[in-house]
């Protein structure tokens, strides 16, 4: 590496490549002062740039290759050259020998870090040729190649120390629950889950082993199994950091953990359930800023976005978001609240539990022990001069009645309900005892939603649709249609899918629909009229994604019930 490169600074490079402006650089430098953080970290944390745009700018400005580590297989000989702690510290990973065997190519988040290059060069006794990659890509690769090895060696140390391999661990009280191998293991488990985009971690006791599974893009994938003897230590560790009672093993418990992964704070909800083989743990991972995203990131099509905006612009009324657990309802609700959250309105939420803290919104946590239920909290909230009320979920007739009364007296109420379709939501509320004429007056919009997995853009394969597939897509049998199917590659971890997108069915209240509802019309009548007025059902929206090559027929089949 020439000396000229040493003098280049990241800020100047990013300005030269027009990735950031001089003003943004000055702002980041002033925020960086005295914090000890790297400039790149400040720029990413402030949302000025992404780590990908920094990597691309470095690649162009320095004339270095940009490496996508997902597509590279690293040999064991290269992995053995540098200790993993050195690589983690420097956010780097060697991936191949250069043209000359004396040259080691190393992917780095900061290829201008001369100290890191010198460290690796001294350890390997090879000349280092840096290449550019993103921090996330490097940390994922380190997890993939070294993660389980690190955890396994830590567990071996723990087993030797405690003799767990020979006997069941006798007591979860003992101080060994704080011994570093288990602490390291639990931390690594959460770090790896976050980097692999998991939404939940399942720790499941079985007859002879403990199984760890991650839910990625809505599907559970087995990651590793451990000796059953370490279960009680894992459970005790999670109970301690989750603020639960470690002596209680017979009752279900709930807790909460906050952990920082790659400089981003994650809120982890923990649920522990006793099973016949021991306590099963499920941890739900939520990024502090994942729930409050831009409307454009929800996956709404342009026409749906217009409908969404029209519904949100109502001065009062009830907006309902419906769908099964894990269909993205909370994200849509929080996005709507963030949109409505201005200095001129008083927003109060009542939730069980509070899923994300939002600045400027008053959030109330349901507490049944203190007799603070959805219904009792709502009564108190109405005396707090609210403009907008968010109810985590309408579970019973009492909550539904108060919500309707609040909306009729001039409040905006947003809430969720577990129903399969937008039209079915209206009849469900009638079943809860709400008179149809009141529903017609109060409901301004219903959004039914699901999440479908997106096909991996790298490996998806085009093919002509079969007769059955055309029938599912509601297309004529003689029409030539090309659709995509999933394949699987290193980029998507062999699943054929990467990421998820929302599928929506938006019912916007109109005078005709109001008259059908007030006349006690059924779900079919409501749906028929809504379709005449341009509503797209979940099936129609999912079919559009299939024809656009975004998702597959099998994913579409999962979300659409109606024929």
What does this protein look like?
The chain has 563 residues and is an alpha/beta fold. 39% of the residues lie in helices and 23% in strands. It contains 22 helices and 18 strands. It has helices at residues 3-7, 10-16, 22-32, 39-45, 51-62, 76-79, 84-90, 114-124, 135-162, 180-195, 231-241, 302-312, 329-340, 374-381, 397-408, 422-431, 436-442, 467-472, 511-518, 523-532, 538-547, 553-559, and strands spanning 92-97, 103-108, 127-132, 198-205, 209-216, 219-227, 253-261, 264-275, 278-287, 317-322, 347-351, 362-365, 388-391, 412-417, 443-455, 461-464, 482-485, 497-508. The strands form 4 sheets. Strands 12-11-13-14-10-15-18 form a 7-stranded mixed β-sheet, sandwiched between helices. A 6-stranded antiparallel β-sheet has the order 6-5-4-9-8-7. The radius of gyration is 27 Å and the shape is globular. It starts with a helix and ends with a helix.
Main β-sheet description: 7 strands, mixed
Mean pLDDT across residues? 86
Could you say which structural class the secondary elements and strand pairing correspond to? alpha/beta
Distance between the terminal alpha carbons, to the nearest Å?
A: 64 Å
Give helix % range: 25-40%
| Rg | 27 Å
Sequence stretches where pLDDT stays below 50 over 5 or more residues:
1-6, 165-178
Strand arrangement, major sheet: 12-11-13-14-10-15-18
With helices defined by DSSP (H or I, 4 residues minimum), what is the helix count?
A: 22
Task: Give the strand content.
Answer: 15-25%
Count of beta strands: 18
Shape: globular
């Amino acid at each position: 590496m020439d000396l000229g490169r040493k003098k280049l600074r990241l800020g100047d490079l990013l300005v030269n490549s027009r990735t950031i402006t001089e003003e943004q650089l000055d702002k980041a430098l002033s925020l960086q002062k005295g914090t000890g953080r790297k400039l790149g970290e400040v720029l990413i944390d402030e949302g000025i740039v992404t780590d990908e745009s920094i990597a691309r700018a470095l690649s162009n400005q320095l004339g270095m290759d940009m490496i996508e580590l997902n597509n590279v297989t690293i040999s064991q000989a290269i992995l053995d050259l540098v200790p993993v702690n050195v690589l983690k510290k420097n956010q780097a990973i060697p991936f191949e020998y250069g043209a000359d065997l004396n040259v080691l190519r190393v992917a780095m988040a900061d290829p201008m870090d001369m100290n890191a290059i010198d460290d690796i060069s001294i350890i390997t006794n090879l000349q280092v040729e840096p290449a550019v990659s993103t921090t996330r890509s490097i940390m994922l690769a380190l997890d993939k190649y070294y993660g389980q090895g690190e955890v396994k060696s830590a567990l071996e140390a723990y087993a030797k120390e405690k003799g767990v391999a020979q006997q069941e661990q006798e007591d979860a009280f003992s101080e060994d629950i704080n011994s570093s191998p288990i602490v390291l293991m639990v931390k690594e488990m959460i770090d790896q889950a976050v980097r692999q985009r998991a939404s939940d971690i399942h720790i499941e006791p079985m007859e002879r082993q403990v199984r760890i599974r991650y839910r990625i893009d809505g599907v559970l994938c087995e990651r590793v199994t451990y000796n059953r003897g370490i279960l009680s230590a894992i459970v005790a560790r999670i109970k301690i950091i989750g603020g639960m009672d470690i002596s209680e093993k017979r009752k279900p418990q709930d807790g909460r953990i906050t952990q920082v992964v790659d400089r981003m704070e994650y809120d982890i909800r923990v649920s522990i359930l006793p099973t016949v083989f021991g306590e099963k743990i499920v941890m739900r991972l939520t990024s502090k800023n994942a729930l409050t995203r831009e409307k454009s990131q929800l996956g709404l099509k342009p026409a749906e976005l217009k409908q969404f905006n029209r519904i949100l612009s109502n001065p009062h009324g009830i907006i309902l978001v419906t769908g099964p657990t894990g269909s993205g309802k909370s994200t849509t609700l929080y996005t709507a609240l963030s949109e409505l959250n201005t200095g001129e309105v008083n927003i109060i939420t009542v939730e069980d539990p509070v899923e994300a803290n939002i600045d400027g919104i008053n959030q109330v946590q349901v507490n049944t022990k203190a007799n603070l239920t959805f219904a009792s909290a709502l009564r108190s909230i109405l005396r707090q001069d609210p403009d907008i009320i968010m109810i985590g979920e309408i579970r019973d007739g009492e909550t539904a009645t108060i919500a309707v009364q609040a909306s009729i007296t001039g409040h905006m109420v947003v809430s969720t309900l577990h129903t399969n379709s937008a039209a079915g939501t209206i009849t469900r509320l009638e079943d809860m005892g709400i008179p149809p004429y009141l529903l017609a007056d109060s409901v301004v919009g219903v959004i039914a939603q699901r999440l479908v997995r997106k096909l991996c853009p790298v490996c998806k394969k085009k093919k002509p649709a079969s007769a059955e597939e055309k029938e599912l897509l509601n297309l004529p049998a003689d029409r030539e249609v090309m659709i995509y199917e999933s394949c699987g590659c290193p980029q998507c971890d062999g699943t054929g899918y990467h990421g998820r997108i929302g599928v929506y069915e938006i019912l916007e209240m109109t005078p005709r629909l109001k008259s059908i509802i007030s006349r006690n019309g059924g779900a079919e009548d409501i749906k028929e009229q809504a379709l005449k007025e341009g509503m797209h059902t979940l099936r129609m929206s999912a079919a559009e994604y299939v024809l656009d090559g975004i998702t597959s027929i099998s994913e579409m089949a999962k979300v659409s019930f109606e024929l």
